[in-house]
Amino acid sequence: MTPMPSIRVISADDHRAYLATLPSASFLQTPGWAKVKSEWRSEHLAWVDDQGTTVGAALVLYRQLPKLKRYLAYLPEGPVIDWSTAALGDWLGPLVRHLKGEGAFAVRIGPPVATRRWSAAQIKDGIADPEVNQLGQVAPLDRSAAGARVVAQLHELGWRHQGAEGGFAAGQPQFVYQIPLVTADGSAHTEESLLKGMNQLWRRNIKKADKEGVEVTTGTKADLKAFHDLYVHTAERDHFTPRPLRYFEVMYDALNADEPDRLKVWLGRHDGDLVAATLAVRVGQHSWYSYGASSTEKREVRGSNAVQWAMIRDALAEGATVYDLRGITDTLDADDPHVGLIQFKVGTGGEAVEYAGEWDLPVNRVLYKAFQVYLARR
C-alpha cells in the first residue's frame, strides 16, 4: 500500500522551483500571485512522499472573516496535485487538516481538470439554433473520464460545487475558450494551420490590420500607463469597473520576478495611435490572454485582431501547447448580450472547455453559513 503524501509549509523559492519542473500550472498558483493578492494572507504548501520528494504544491490565500480570526482558505485553480488519482481523499485530507489548524472555516479549491469540450463549429450551430440557449444543450465533442472521476470523488468527500449563473463565478470561470497549439497526434501547429482554423472574418481582419499598417510590439512596465488609459476607456464604453493602474504594476513586477517575460504587455498602434493593448501570461506550456483594451476610434483597422494574432504566434514560437482566451459564459442565446464575447472567441477556431469549477468544503458549518449570508448581502 502506497503511503499517503504529507503536507508541509515551504518557502516561495521552493514552491517556484517545484513548479519549474512541471509542464505548466495556473499562474494563479504561482508564488508571484501571492504578491498580487497582498490583501490576503498567503502560504506555500507542498505534498511530500515517504522518500521526501515533493509531489504536489499549492498557493493558499486566506481571507479573514470580519472581526473574527477565521479564514476562507482559497486555492484558485489549484492545488497542483495528481488529479488523475482514484484516491483524491489521500491528497485533500491532509490539506484540509492543515488548513483547519490555520483557522480555516472553509476551503475553496478549483481543480484544473477539464470535463467537457465543444468545437467552434458546434458552438456556431448552437447559436444559430433557436431551440438552443446554453452550451450544455449541445452534445460535447468530448467528455473527460478523468474529469468525471474528479467530480464524483469530490461529491463523495463532501465538497460542494459552487455553480454560477451563466458560468461566471465570484472566483474563476468554469467555461473558457482555448486554441490548442498542438494537433491530436501531439505535433505542433504551424501559423498556416492556425490561420486555416480561423473563420473567414478573423482571417480577413488580420489581413486588413496588416494592410492598414497596424504595428504590434511588446512593451515594458513603462507602457502599462498607456495600456491602462485605453483599458479605462474600454471599461467606460463596455460598462465594467476597471482595476487601478497600481494593480497591473504589482502584477507585472510579481509575475516577472517569478520568471522573466511571464507577463508581457502587447501594444497595437496605427499611425502612432494606440488602438489595442493587452496583457498576456505564460507559465511553461500554457499561455493566457489576461486583459484587453481597444479604442472606439479606428476600429476599422482591426487592432484587436492584430494583437491577438501576434500573441498567438508568440505563444506558438515559445513552445506553448495551448493559447487560452480565458472566460466565457455558457450562453448560446443569440439575444443575450454575452453572446458577442463567445462569437469573437469562436472566430479563432479553438474550442470551448468546461472545467470542474470551484468547490467548497465547510470546516465550520455555522461560520460557513454566515459567510454565505454575508456574500448574498454584498
TrEMBL record:
How far does the signal peptide extend, from start to end residue?
none
Q: What is this protein called?
A: Aminoacyltransferase
Native organism is Nocardioides humilatus
The entry lists its GO molecular-function terms as: aminoacyltransferase activity
Alphabetic keyword roster: Acyltransferase, Cell shape, Cell wall biogenesis/degradation, Peptidoglycan synthesis, Transferase
Q: Which GO terms describe its biological process?
A: cell wall organization; peptidoglycan biosynthetic process; regulation of cell shape
What InterPro entries does this protein map onto?
Answer: Acyl_CoA_acyltransferase (IPR016181), FEMABX (IPR003447), PG_Glycine_Bridge_Synth (IPR050644)
Pfam family example for this protein? FemAB
The record's family statement is: Belongs to the FemABX family.
